[in-house]
Amino acid sequence: MHLKPVIAANWKLNHTPSDARAFLQRFLAQAPKLHERTLIFFPSAITLTTVVDGLKDRPEIWVGVQNVHLEAQGAFTGENSVLMARDVGARVVLVGHSERRHVFGETDAMTTKKMALIAQARLTPMLCVGETLAERESGQTTEVVERQLRAGLSELDDAQIGSIMLAYEPVWAIGTGRTATPEDAGEIHGGLRRALVSRVGEKAAAGIPILYGGSVNRGNASQLLAAPDVDGLLVGGASLDADSWASIVRA
Ligand code: 13P
């Protein structure tokens, strides 16, 4: 099965609501409706409503959040909840992004809990997995990404797993200008697909988009997208500029 590619912009801690309004004006002017792509924006929680409003005439474009708290509500000053995200129109939630894991100390146990919480709220979790440079150089890539995958799926039933998205983001490629080659990405994605097949079977596994992320830009996007089992792209830096993003979504 060939999946409709998912092209996602992770804005991280960039773009104020005013920046987002200007970005969308410029981007939408050059982005006719793309039937053959699913587009997702992950703005900051504060910018989210502005992006939802800016896309009200483009319901085919999805909006998501970069993180949610482990609990759906309560005395957790400073956090954002899955229920709030859903209420303002988010459809997807990033889980276990490498910056959450490595800057904020998010553990596999936390990703387990968040995946279950998000699935119960009937939003789509996008689980991010990826090895550090040291792990890669010591030959642990497969072990690390499969451990992160197992943790993310461990409290989901088969139907819930069938509706997740997965992103392979090697930590050494994020924001560094170093990209996995299409061959490398294809190999890791193939391993992730096999792990999904053994968990939920061939048919469900074939329906789960596996995105690649890590220094994707307009020059390498189409080659990466053409690699086997690469069903989409999760883009950081190169998604911040409207023109660059417009050319990546057409890759
Ligand atoms: P860059 O595209 O800036 O390397 O970031 C990738 C990423 O972390 C997307 O989630």
What report would you give on this structure?
With 251 residues, the protein is of the alpha/beta class. It has a single domain, classed as TIM Barrel (Alpha-Beta Barrel). The chain contains 12 helices and 8 strands. The protein has an 8-stranded parallel β-barrel, surrounded by 5 helices. Helix 3 links the parallel strand 3 and strand 4. The two termini are 20 Å apart. The mean pLDDT is 97. The structure holds 1,3-dihydroxyacetonephosphate.
Tag the structure with descriptive keywords.
251 residues, alpha/beta, TIM Barrel, eight-stranded parallel β-barrel, 12 helices
Break the fold down into its secondary structure elements and pairings.
Layout lengths: L5 E5 L6 H13 L8 E5 L2 H10 L7 E4 L16 H6 L4 E4 L2 H5 L5 H13 L3 E6 L3 H5 L3 H13 L4 H5 L2 E4 L13 H19 L1 H5 L3 E4 L7 H5 L6 E4 L6 H8 L2
Helix pairs in contact: 1-2, 1-12, 5-7, 7-9
The structure holds 1,3-dihydroxyacetonephosphate.
